[in-house]
Amino acid sequence: MVSRFLLVFLSIKTILQEATIYRRRQKLTAIGNGLDLGGAYGATLGRIKAQGGEMARLGMAVLEWISHSRRPLKVDEICHAIAIEIGSNGLNSDDIPAISTLLDCCQGLVTVDKGDSTIRFIHFTLQEYLCAHPELFTRADSTMAETCLTYLGFQHIKDLAADPPPDPSGAPFLEYSSLYWGTHMRMEPSHRSRTFALELLGPFENHVSAKLLWNSISREFSSRNTDHKPFSALHCISYFGIADIADNLLNVDKRDVNQRDSAGATPLIWAARYGHEKVVRWLLRKKDVQPDLPDTNSGRTALSWAAENGHEGVVRLFLRPRFVNPARIGRWWGRAPRVAGLLLSRRYVNPDSSSKSDQRPLAWAAENGHEGIVKLLLERKDVNPDTPDLWSGQTALLRAAGNGHEGIVKLLLERRDVKPDTPDTINGQTPLSWAAENGHEGTAKLLLGRKDVNPNTPDLLFSRTPLSRAAGNGHKRVVELLLERGDANPDTPDTIHGQTPLSWAARNGHEGIVKLLLARDDVNCDTPDTEYGRTPLLWASRNGHEGTVRLLLGWKDVNPNEPDAEFGQTPLSWAAESGHEGVVKLLLGRTDVNPDTPDTWYAQTPLSWAAENGHEGTVRLLLGRKDVNPDIPDAQYGQTPLSWAAENGHDGVVKLLLERKDVNPGSTNKSGRTPLALAAANSHDRVVELLQTPHLERSANSVLA
To answer: Any residues with CB less than 8 A from the CB of 445 and at least 6 apart, and which?
Structure first.
């Protein structure tokens, strides 16, 4: 719909651009013959270029920046960016265009979002159109990199102090240029951007952009370090992945390639973490680089970061034979004697290195579904595929199973040295338990195909079986797989709540699973849990799962009037309290349901609960029954349904109750207060008005006198 209006808007602008009536008619005919949105964009771009001179340049420059920027640009940012002359020494404030000028130059294709003062395209389809026509902006990234670097080289920018951070209004383009010059340069390096970058990186640690970049990067992790080590030029190009100027940079800056920054990370770690293969390759060629040096924040190596983030090419570089320790092949890393000196061992890469959480590269890759990397690591003899981490006790198989990475689970199950039924140490859940809980059907099927996997193993934390977890979370296909296995007990309660799989499924309204379990002869359909004494029907009624209630009521072994052990509330009482009209209707349709049974805690009837909570439809249903007394007070406070409704300001309920002749509007509670007094005390004016209606002849009016 939006695109239709947009097409009309652009078409009208195209027609009005013509100078004579004849030409406008010709253009209208052409549009009527099938000008689509893409055609309208093309025509509008033609008009932008036809403006000629500075107007055309500005219009196309704005489109280039918006379409290629790494985040939405604010109005001041784009105005300054457009005004920068690449290679100049400063910015002429008189040459900064007004935003209104830029909008005019763009012929209606661009607008300002008033909410956050960013400039954007009028519709997302324009971005798609420009991406499909790369010939429109052939040097976008290199132009933007050169512009950013030119700005960072201005003297007034170089003079800015890093602490405290400068006022953005004084340098609107500083943040964007500091954070994204490297990204644009990596995408499309140029001779000029290389020159400008080397000029910036020479004194980089003292440049304000270094601080801004570090502040942005450091938000990605929680640093435990208190030292404020510099984020050097080498760290910077490793983070951005700019390999082109690496050699030139080291000629200028003779800094240690293993230097750590404030996060305790080396340049190699940054390059590996973000998958910059060229930079990783370049760093690994340096004789003094230590490829296995961990960061001091998390204790993770470059290989560990690359494995987590799925950078297979980088992982391959670290696993090359030149980095294999010959003294440790065929043994688990760390068990071999320390036969190599520091000068020799620093060139080795441990593919099974642990971090502070003790999670290994294989576990990181398995958790995140990087099958290719898992394959590479499993080919190594010095990688233990079944090592649990210290923090959670999770193995690679547990992490893969919990996240449903079926291919990786299959790879790990093919190994004889992987135990398929080992639980973690935090929750005590097995791989099958995690797969069942998260509904990973393929993974569950693989695990259930193993004879050494016990489908009834409860977890340690809540003592729930895989079937219990799958049923509670509504994973019907996993439930079917478990039941098909034959040896899964479908009626085992957990030990914390005492709920069976049926109870969990009913509680959460998973009708399909309830139906599956009810069809079993070995499932008791009316077992109450041990925590609250609630049956499956009571849980379903309390939570308003109408379909589940209907299913359960169809079984003769289900008692529809069974109260819970906590408050003595029946299924009808809970449904009425929560206002679940459909469930109330179903229960009232049963002849064996007493609609007036009070609970054992407050002695409130279903009508009392519904009235207190303002559920008008439920109140109407209950008042339609002849066997419901509408004026019974509860035992705790002595309040009738009318008193509760009046106190809480439910005027619709009050009105319904006042229509009954068997409701006393002047009844008093244990504190001697009438419904009118309760309503007045809580400033429920509409209820007060209803209770004071003359024709009702209430003696309660005297209370206000």
So the answer is: 481
Share the mean pLDDT of the chain.
89
- 419 by DSSP, 3-state: which? coil
Pairwise CA distance, residues 497 & 569, whole Å? 18
The Cα 476–Cα 521 span in angstroms is: 19
Task: Report the pLDDT value the prediction gives residue 24, as an integer from 0 to 100.
Answer: 47
Q: Ramachandran region of residue 80, left (φ > 0), alpha (ψ -120 to 50) or beta?
A: alpha
Cβ neighbours, 10 Å, residue 274: 18
**pLDDT for 562-580, tens place per residue?**
999 999 999 999 999 999 9
Is residue 703 a contact partner of residue 677, using CB atoms and an 8 Å limit?
yes
Q: What does the alpha-carbon distance between residue 331 and residue 336 come to, in Å, rounded to a whole number?
A: 7
221 or 372: which carries more pLDDT confidence? 372
Cβ neighbours for 132, distance < 8 A, ≥ 6 positions apart:
none
The tokens describing 546, both together, are 């109408």
Q: What is the distance between the alpha carbons of residues 82 and 59, in angstroms, rounded to a whole number?
A: 10
Q: What is the edge-to-edge ordering of all strands in the sheet holding 110-113?
A: 73-74, 118-121, 110-113
CA-based torsion, 387, 391, 397, 398: positive or negative? positive
Query: What's the pLDDT tens digit per position in 328-345?
Result: 544 444 444 343 334 344
Long-range pairs for 170-174: beta carbons < 8 A, 24 or more residues apart: 172/74, 172/76, 172/77, 172/79, 172/80, 173/76, 173/77, 173/80, 173/81, 173/84, 173/148, 174/208, 174/209, 174/212
* Residue 269: strand, helix, or coil: helix
Long-range contacts of 9-17 (CB under 8 A, 24+ apart): 9/108, 10/37, 10/40, 10/41, 10/43, 10/44, 10/108, 11/35, 11/40, 13/44, 13/47, 13/107, 13/108, 14/40, 14/43, 14/44, 14/47, 17/47
Burial class (CB in 10 A: 0-12, 13-18, 19+), 682: middle
> For position 479, what pLDDT does the model report?
98
In this structure, the number of other CB atoms found within 10 A of the CB of residue 640 comes to 27
What is the model's pTM? 0.84
Q: What is the mean pLDDT of residues 419-437?
A: 96
Residue with tokens 């324009």: 126
Strand partners, 73: 119
Q: Rounded to an integer, what distance in angstroms lies between the CA atom of residue 549 and that of residue 538?
A: 9
CA distances from 678 to 646, 672, 684 (A): 6, 10, 9
Q: Which DSSP symbol is given to 589?
A: T
